[in-house]
Amino acid sequence: RISVWKTIKTHLRAKYFNWHLAEAPHVTFFTIYDLEVREGDLLVRNNYSCLRSMAPLEYVHMPNTVIFIGLCSVDDYIEMNVHLDFLSKVKEYFAGNKIIYVTHPRDSASRIAQIKEHLQCELWPSSSVIEYDLIVQGIKPKAVAGFVSSALITLAHLMDAGVEIVCFHIAPEHWIHWREDAAGAYKYIKSKAQPRVTIVPLCRRENED
Q1: Looking at residue 41, what is its pLDDT?
Q2: Burial class of residue 137, CB neighbours in 10 A (0-12, 13-18, 19+)
Q3: CA distances (Å), 6 to each of 17, 18, 164, in order?
Q4: Phi (first) and psi of residue 48, to 5 degrees
């Protein structure tokens, strides 16, 4: 006699795990990214019409404020002291402007406190997706910036042309675990997102170690 548990396992396996893994003959991509697709595939542009429709009629102007999208520091993509040094260079670049730091969801409270103390900045008061927050709240800062983030590319499409989008380029030798991915992201921004996204190279002298 077949047990009830075995019957349930068979049902679950058939419903959820017996996937067809063969390559689909045609694929439709729905994205803002400028992808090169195969012959027969389709690229449908996402213009975020639904999100745009949620924007208020009047902006909240923040002309002397920079929204900086933080990099995850707990994964050791770059050493923490190097990370802080580059954040100092960001602060110098935007001297005279207020910086609001958007923390990464995976960052620890101690790392966030360290960054806040180092930058002497405010933290973005939400754990929601920053693209959603800025559009739905009608926030119009001086600039949105970051080291490398998909949010920069998304916001380059979403934000008003008067808002600067700035990507700070960290050279490959400073990355630990994410070097190839970071290089690929920068390459995409350079080839597809300029001139809407301004790329600012960051360098670090040996005596800064």
Answers
A1: 83
A2: middle
A3: 15, 16, 59
A4: 55, 40
For residue 196, the tally of other CB atoms under 10 A from its CB is 16
- CA-CA-CA-CA torsion sign (8, 9, 14, 19): positive
Q: How far is CA 105 from CA 49, 67, 127, 182, in A?
A: 26, 16, 7, 19
Q: Three-state SS for 22?
A: coil
Quote the CA–CA distance of 34 and 54 in Å, as a whole number: 25
Query: Do 196 and 189 touch, CB atoms closer than 8 A?
Result: no
* Residue 15 DSSP code: I
**What pLDDT score was predicted for residue 106?**
83
In this structure, which amino acid lies at residue 138?
A: G
pLDDT digits (tens, 9 = 90+) for 134-174: 999 999 999 999 998 889 989 998 998 999 999 999 988 88
Examine the pLDDT at 177 and tell me if it is beyond 90: no
Q: Give the C-alpha separation, 100 to 163, whole Å.
A: 15
- Give residue 44's pLDDT: 81
**Cα(88)–Cα(94) distance, rounded to whole angstroms?**
10
Residue keyed to tokens 């404020």: 65
Confidence bin at 209 (pLDDT 50/70/90): low
